[in-house]
Amino acid sequence: MNKTALITGASSGIGEVFAHRLAAQGYRLILAARSQDTLERLARELAGRFAVEVQVITADLSLEHTPSEIFRQVQELGWHVDLLVNNAGFGLSGEFLSHSAEEYRQQIKLNVASLVDMTHLFLPPMLAKGDGAIINLASLLSFFPFPYCSVYSATKTFVLSFSESLWEEYRHQGIKVLALCPGPTDTQFFTKAKEVELDRKRSPEQVVDTALKALSQNKSFVIDGKLNVLNALLARLLPRKTMVSMLGSVMRKSLASRAKG
């Protein structure tokens, strides 16, 4: 029987590439995101191209009940999820007070709470089978505080720590847990986090290929791209105050340049 992968945030970017890569490997797919039309088009494309079964779940994971609703629908399908890809998330940039508290609550719910809930729901069936894998989308910003992207970088620090802890807790029981830490990537992320957009980005395909290779090696985390690896290493070598001051200076210059432009 083919294995099944559940991908959140599957309608575009990294999530969409995961869907293509896993379908090419013969996985049955469950695609979850808010955009039903986009998901259904992607499902038809993948089913036709790779001859795999694809199910669509329209869901807003920033809502508290959504992970339980996704789990219920998967149970009704009668499918066992072998690989969970917690990809859904978004970032906000700019000074902390430039966004409302409600916007930050939505970001924390999506980037942190829903990821924990999805993991808590889908991990027990994996343990019962003695086999399974979870990929959680962290970030290069998991490794250092990032001024003008403060809440986002904090949520991704949580994801990295959470994933590494689970890797150690469950690796002896047949479960792989990977924190995927991409740097700037050519996705729709920068539609909301436009203040931190850079010209030089990795592609979603590069990020997903890095993730799947690291998962096959049972790594607890992986950073995509050699330059990003060096940046994470630099963050660990420099005093935290020095690092955050450097990043703050860079961001202030970038914000000032965009304001003039």
Q: How would you describe what is shown here?
A:
By secondary structure, the protein is an alpha/beta fold. The chain has a single domain, classed as Rossmann fold, CATH 3.40.50.720. The chain is globular and about 55 Å long. Keywords: Oxidoreductase.
Question: Which helices and strands, and how do they pair?
Answer:
Elements: E1 4-8, H1 13-24, E2 28-33, H2 36-50, E3 54-58, H3 66-77, E4 83-86, H4 101-129, E5 132-137, H5 150-170, E6 175-181, H6 189-192, H7 204-216, E7 221-223, H8 226-237, H9 240-260
Parallel strand pairs: 1-2, 1-4, 2-3, 4-5, 5-6, 6-7
Helix pairs in contact: 1-2, 1-7, 3-4, 4-5
Organism: Paenibacillus hexagrammi
Protein name: SDR family oxidoreductase
Keywords: Oxidoreductase
What would the keywords be for this entry?
Rossmann fold, 7-stranded parallel β-sheet, 14% strand, oxidoreductase, SDR_fam, SDR family oxidoreductase, NAD(P)-bd_dom_sf
Assign the CATH class.
Answer: Alpha Beta
CATH topology: Rossmann fold
- CATH level-4 homologous superfamily: NAD(P)-binding Rossmann-like Domain
**SS field, number of helical segments:** 9
What amount of the residues lies in strands? 5-15%
Largest beta-sheet details:
7 strands, parallel
By CATH, the architecture is named 3-Layer(aba) Sandwich
N-to-C terminal Cα separation, in Å? 56 Å
Question: Percentage of helical residues?
Answer: 40-55%
Q: Topology as H/E string?
A: EHEHEHEHEHEHHEHH
- List the domain count as a whole number: 1
Rg, Cα atoms, Å: 18 Å
Tertiary shape? globular
